[in-house]
Every structure is written in C-alpha cells, then in structure tokens.
Specification:
Helix content: 40-55%
Strand content: 5-15%
Distance between the termini: 69 Å
Shape: globular
Order of helices and strands: HHHHHEEHHHHEEEHHHHHH
C-alpha cells in the first residue's frame, strides 16, 4: 500500500467543525469559550459543535421565556445569571424543548433529543461547578429524561439477499437517463452496499476512504475511527470482488475534480461522495425492499454486527470489529437472547432423574 492521505479528509472535517464552533461561539456569552476550551482534550470537534447547538438552544430559551433574567440578547448573559436559576427553571426548559418556535420555525425533541440536550447542559454546569466558579447547580437535582430502548432495526438474511440483488440487477426495467445513471454507478453502489454489509463500517468511515486505504494483499481497509484513531478492518472475498470490480472497471475511468484525486468513492460530480449522498442511496434501495423498516447506513452496520455475533457468539470480537470503546454498548445491542434460545432453556434443565 502507498502512503494514505485519509488524514486529509479527516482533517478537513475537523477544520470545518472548528470553524462552525467559532461561528457559534460568536453568538454566545463570552464565558462559554472557557467551557469549550476545557472539554477539547476529551471530545471531538463534532461533539463540541453538538454541545454548542444544544447550549445555544438553552440560551435562546432564557432570553425568550425567562422574564426574570432581565437580558435581551444572548451575549449579555453572564455566569451569575445561570447561577441564580432554580430547578423549576430547568424543568420549564425541559417542557419548552418538547415544542418551541424560533424565527417562525417549529422545533420538537423526542426523548433522545431531550436527553442529549439535558446531558449537554449538565456537563456545562458541572464544568464551572468543579472549578468553583459557581456554587449553585440547578441541573444536578433534575432527573434526566428516560430513554426507552427500542428493538434494534436490521435486515434479515433474505432481505440482505434481495437488497444486493436489487443493486446488482435492479436497473433492467429502467429507461433513458435513469438507466444511464444506474449503469454508470452500478459497480460503485454494489461496492458500497457490500462494504457496509461485509465490514460494518460507519458511513463517515466509508466516505473518508482513499484508494490507498484498500489493501487487497491483506484484504483490509485502513479507516479513521471517531476521535481520529487509525484502524484496519478486514474483509472477505465478496467485499474484495465488489471493491476490485469497482476500482478496475468504473473508478479508473473517472477524471476527478482537483483535490479529490485520492477519494475511493466518487459522486456523479466526480468529487468525493458525501455522507448525505450515501444516506440517500441506502434509502432509495432499501425502501424498495421493506416499507416498515427505516433502513440507514447505520442499520446496515447493525445488520453486520448481528450476523457476526450469531456466527461467532463472541461479543468482544464484535465490539472490536465495530470499533466500540465499551463492550457494554455492544452487549446492549447485539447479545439479546432470541426466542429460540429462550425456548431451549425450558428443557435444558432436568429436575428429577428418571425413575
């Protein structure tokens, strides 16, 4: 393998999020810069942007809904204002998050959105409390919103077969420009779907791949995990064949735009394919296979993780391959005992020996 330039894509993402954070901070109270500087060593740029959006929503609430704050614009909010808030103010904020309007637009939050925004606010307050900058922390006495676990959505084996067959042969009834577009992108699309279902990589890891990151000698790809960690993910013969066909037949005839020469997967505009484009691609094909399952690239990752666990029974292997830092995350999603195993437990233990 040649030297990979995958860092370029990764660094571009960091730079974009860093600039986005700076723009957001310009709208917020000056003391917020201390918080984001303090959490930088332990968070990614993308995570910090998420915190900023959540905290901006809180500040908007304070200005628009909390008459006791006596400020008209967000930059005028001071730390002493936050310290004087009471638990009832935080409870009102939680109620506000369920349905609110800003600049004429309607916003809602489900239980996961509520939980994330409250977690951001709790971290924010804890930062200043631990440093003894504030004493009163009204968030610490508020119970976090509950998140009800939903059954993980994944494709069944027959649905995987049907999906891959559709990607490979589904263009036979198409006509005109749709058929031309299908044929031009068929090998790329087969490679993308096969890669998701055969390795379980994340969509961001997929679009960040460079041609130099594919190693056919060792049957592996080099990816950059969340947080910037470099890892190798190994693939089987089906993935190798799909990637090889795409690279040797389709990719080699693309004349990429300047700055996109190293990308593995190209869009129709001859640029590195985007996360949104891949998400739309998965939605387009998966919706023809199942109408009641909302299939995304992450659900294809879940499909792979489930298949790997059923084949090996090794939850630690699944965690390692999927890049989970905590095996408990993997256990929660993939180690549920299915009904067949539960039924087998009924006759597994004999209470009395045969007389």
């Amino acid at each position: 393998m040649g030297k990979s330039n995958n860092e370029t894509y990764h660094q571009q993402s960091i730079q974009q999020n860093t600039q986005k954070l700076r723009n957001l901070l310009n709208e917020m109270p000056k003391f917020c810069k201390d918080f984001f500087r303090g959490i930088e060593p332990s968070t990614s740029a993308r995570t910090r942007v998420g915190y900023a959006y959540d905290l901006r929503t809180f500040f908007r609430f304070l200005v628009s809904e909390n008459s006791g704050l006596d400020v008209d614009i967000i930059p005028d909010i001071k730390l002493e204002h936050l310290e004087h808030l009471e638990p009832v103010d935080i409870e009102e904020y939680m109620e506000y998050l369920k349905l609110y309007y800003y600049n004429g637009k309607k916003y809602t939050n489900d239980e996961r959105g509520l939980h994330r925004k409250m977690a951001s606010l709790r971290s924010f307050y804890m930062y200043y409390q631990k440093r003894k900058i504030i004493k009163n922390n009204p968030v610490e006495v508020i119970d976090m919103p509950k998140i009800h676990e939903h059954e993980i959505i994944r494709l069944d084996n027959d649905e995987v077969d049907e999906l891959l067959a559709l990607v490979e042969h589904g263009g036979k009834d198409l006509k005109g420009i749709k058929k031309t577009y299908y044929e031009k992108n068929k090998l790329r699309n087969i490679a993308i779907f096969t890669l998701f279902l055969g390795t379980g990589i994340r969509v961001s890891e997929c679009v960040g791949l460079n041609i130099e990151d594919v190693d056919f000698k060792e049957n592996r790809i080099r990816i950059i995990r969340k947080g910037g960690k470099e890892e190798y993910v190994y693939f089987g013969d089906e993935v190798a064949e799909a990637l090889g066909n795409y690279i040797e037949i389709s990719r080699c005839i693309v004349k990429p735009k300047e700055g996109h020469e190293h990308a593995l997967f190209y869009s129709i505009q001859k640029r590195r394919i985007t996360v949104q484009a891949v998400e739309n691609l998965v939605k387009e094909y998966a919706s023809q296979i199942t109408t009641f399952k909302h299939i995304t690239p992450h659900k294809l990752r879940s499909t792979y993780g489930t298949a790997l666990y059923h084949q090996t029974g090794d939850i630690y292997l699944v965690a390692d391959v999927l890049g989970h830092n905590d095996v408990n995350t993997t256990k929660k999603h993939y180690a549920a005992i299915n009904d067949d195993k539960k039924r087998s437990a009924a006759s597994a233990v004999t209470l009395r020996k045969s007389q």
